Amino acid sequence: MRDGARSRRGWRSGEEIAALVGEYNRSGLSQREYSVREGVALSTLSLYLRRARAAVAPEGTRLIPVQVLGGATLVLVQSSGMRIEVGAGFDPDTLRRLLEALEA
Protein backbone atom coordinates (compact mmCIF):
# COMPACT_ATOMS: atom_id res chain seq x y z
CA MET A 1 0.00 0.00 0.00
CA ARG A 2 1.35 3.38 -0.83
CA ASP A 3 0.80 6.75 0.85
CA GLY A 4 -2.75 7.36 1.96
CA ALA A 5 -3.70 3.70 1.92
CA ARG A 6 -4.42 3.53 5.64
CA SER A 7 -7.51 4.90 7.26
CA ARG A 8 -7.25 7.63 9.88
CA ARG A 9 -7.14 5.07 12.72
CA GLY A 10 -4.13 3.32 11.17
CA TRP A 11 -6.23 0.24 10.42
CA ARG A 12 -6.87 -1.02 6.91
CA SER A 13 -10.39 -1.52 5.65
CA GLY A 14 -11.43 -4.80 4.07
CA GLU A 15 -11.11 -3.18 0.65
CA GLU A 16 -7.59 -1.95 1.44
CA ILE A 17 -6.56 -5.41 2.63
CA ALA A 18 -8.03 -7.05 -0.48
CA ALA A 19 -6.15 -4.56 -2.67
CA LEU A 20 -2.90 -5.20 -0.80
CA VAL A 21 -3.30 -8.98 -1.15
CA GLY A 22 -4.09 -8.60 -4.85
CA GLU A 23 -1.10 -6.34 -5.41
CA TYR A 24 1.15 -8.80 -3.58
CA ASN A 25 -0.14 -11.73 -5.65
CA ARG A 26 0.58 -9.85 -8.87
CA SER A 27 3.96 -8.52 -7.74
CA GLY A 28 6.04 -11.68 -8.12
CA LEU A 29 7.95 -10.64 -5.00
CA SER A 30 8.58 -12.65 -1.85
CA GLN A 31 6.56 -11.64 1.19
CA ARG A 32 9.67 -10.07 2.71
CA GLU A 33 10.50 -8.10 -0.44
CA TYR A 34 6.92 -6.89 -0.82
CA SER A 35 6.57 -5.90 2.83
CA VAL A 36 9.77 -3.84 2.69
CA ARG A 37 8.80 -2.19 -0.61
CA GLU A 38 5.30 -1.26 0.60
CA GLY A 39 6.12 -0.48 4.23
CA VAL A 40 3.87 -3.22 5.61
CA ALA A 41 5.04 -5.34 8.53
CA LEU A 42 5.91 -8.84 7.33
CA SER A 43 3.76 -10.36 10.08
CA THR A 44 0.80 -8.22 8.99
CA LEU A 45 1.18 -9.21 5.33
CA SER A 46 1.46 -12.88 6.32
CA LEU A 47 -1.71 -12.60 8.40
CA TYR A 48 -3.63 -10.98 5.53
CA LEU A 49 -2.46 -13.70 3.13
CA ARG A 50 -3.43 -16.52 5.53
CA ARG A 51 -6.88 -15.01 6.01
CA ALA A 52 -7.35 -14.55 2.25
CA ARG A 53 -6.35 -18.16 1.57
CA ALA A 54 -8.63 -19.45 4.32
CA ALA A 55 -11.54 -17.43 2.91
CA VAL A 56 -11.31 -19.07 -0.54
CA ALA A 57 -10.26 -22.60 0.42
CA PRO A 58 -13.07 -25.12 0.97
CA GLU A 59 -13.23 -26.77 4.39
CA GLY A 60 -10.43 -29.29 4.80
CA THR A 61 -8.44 -28.00 1.82
CA ARG A 62 -4.76 -27.37 2.34
CA LEU A 63 -3.08 -24.73 0.21
CA ILE A 64 0.61 -25.23 -0.30
CA PRO A 65 2.71 -22.31 -1.55
CA VAL A 66 4.95 -23.27 -4.47
CA GLN A 67 7.70 -21.64 -6.41
CA VAL A 68 7.93 -22.49 -10.10
CA LEU A 69 11.50 -22.90 -11.27
CA GLY A 70 12.62 -22.75 -14.90
CA GLY A 71 11.95 -25.96 -16.79
CA ALA A 72 9.56 -27.31 -14.17
CA THR A 73 6.10 -28.73 -14.72
CA LEU A 74 3.39 -27.44 -12.40
CA VAL A 75 0.51 -29.78 -11.58
CA LEU A 76 -2.61 -28.62 -9.73
CA VAL A 77 -4.92 -31.37 -8.49
CA GLN A 78 -8.17 -30.59 -6.70
CA SER A 79 -9.84 -32.97 -4.28
CA SER A 80 -12.55 -33.47 -6.96
CA GLY A 81 -9.86 -35.04 -9.14
CA MET A 82 -9.66 -32.16 -11.61
CA ARG A 83 -6.07 -31.86 -12.79
CA ILE A 84 -4.37 -28.92 -14.51
CA GLU A 85 -0.82 -29.38 -15.72
CA VAL A 86 1.36 -26.67 -17.24
CA GLY A 87 4.90 -26.92 -18.48
CA ALA A 88 7.84 -24.60 -18.65
CA GLY A 89 7.14 -21.30 -20.34
CA PHE A 90 3.44 -21.19 -19.48
CA ASP A 91 1.69 -17.83 -19.39
CA PRO A 92 0.75 -17.06 -15.74
CA ASP A 93 -2.00 -14.62 -16.80
CA THR A 94 -3.70 -17.27 -18.93
CA LEU A 95 -3.51 -19.77 -16.06
CA ARG A 96 -4.93 -17.17 -13.65
CA ARG A 97 -7.86 -16.48 -16.02
CA LEU A 98 -8.50 -20.23 -16.36
CA LEU A 99 -8.58 -20.70 -12.59
CA GLU A 100 -10.87 -17.69 -12.14
CA ALA A 101 -13.24 -19.10 -14.78
CA LEU A 102 -13.29 -22.48 -13.04
CA GLU A 103 -14.06 -20.84 -9.69
CA ALA A 104 -17.01 -18.90 -11.17
Topology diagram in text:
Blueprint: H1 14-27, H2 31-38, H3 42-56, E1 74-77, E2 83-86, H4 92-103
Helix pairs in contact: 1-3
Detailed description of the structure:
This protein is mostly helical and 104 residues long. The chain folds into two domains: 1-63, no CATH class; 74-103, no CATH class. Helices cover 47% and strands 8% of the residues. It has helices spanning 14-27, 31-38, 42-56, 92-103, and strands at residues 74-77, 83-86. The protein has a two-stranded antiparallel ribbon with strand order 1-2. Strand 1 (74-77) and strand 2 (83-86) form a beta hairpin. The longest helix is centred in the middle third of the chain and has 15 residues, at 42-56.
